[in-house]
Amino acid sequence: MVSSITAKIFGRNKFQPQGKGAHVTICARGQKELDATLEEIKAVSRNRSDYESLIFNAISADISKKDESIRALNEASERHNGKVPDVVICCAGFSIPRVFIEQPVEEFEATMQLNYFGTLYTTHEAVKRMAQQGVKGKIVFVSSVAAFVGFLGYSSYSPSKVALRSLAECLRHELILYDIGVHCYFPGTLDTEGLIEENKTKPKITKELEGEDKITPEQAAKALYKGLCKGNFFITSDIIGDAFRAASLGVSESNSAFVDAILCGILWTVSKPVRWFSDKMVRDRKSEHPVIPADNGMVNDE
Predict the structure, then answer these.
(1) What's the superkingdom here (predicted)?
(2) CATH architecture of 8-286
């Protein structure tokens, strides 16, 4: 009763999937990887009594392209007589960490195209169909702790994740019109093949600033699931991410006013010495990133 009243007061759209069967569609570019993942999902579900009635689907598509994104949603819906999925989780993304002036503009564009526009294309089409079909569904964005704090090496990545956070805030408010829930997850460093790829271009100082802490995909999935079940709008994986979340809420929903106030106080206390130390680390590495003179053949006469 209390949780029901709280949900009504604070607009929480809780996730309660326990005991329910679920049809699952996954989407990515690589068909081989998709097929392997789909088999893992099926294996977990085989002990269910309703297994034979469940629909599992894998769709190969590049969602950074609008037409491909819509095609993927069409194919996912076709298996269910045109019904849009009840829960859409947008987690496609990548990072190419480099020093700002050493990074080509094309990499900024590609990062924003996938991380932000890929999510936008899918979400725009999905919520339109949810509203038209009367589906009181959920949209889940996967942003990053990098949306709360920016530092050397992530000038192409962090802004794309900040954009997702802002989109989530707008849609959380707007989609109340259609009883569609919106959530945004901010994981820390994920121990994936993507991390191996981004470490190939990542500046040494960025690696040192990040540290060695990382979480597995399984830990991330559990943190996201737990946050959805609680009805949290902003979801994090650990105490550090939670402190950043609490300190940058603005007028966004708080997960717990009391706990968030404590976290804000702690972060405010430690942020200045941490910032001073990280700035010093950058100053001490100036020699590692000399400015390369432009060779443009132009001369300015006095």
Answers:
(1) Eukaryota
(2) 3-Layer(aba) Sandwich (3.40)
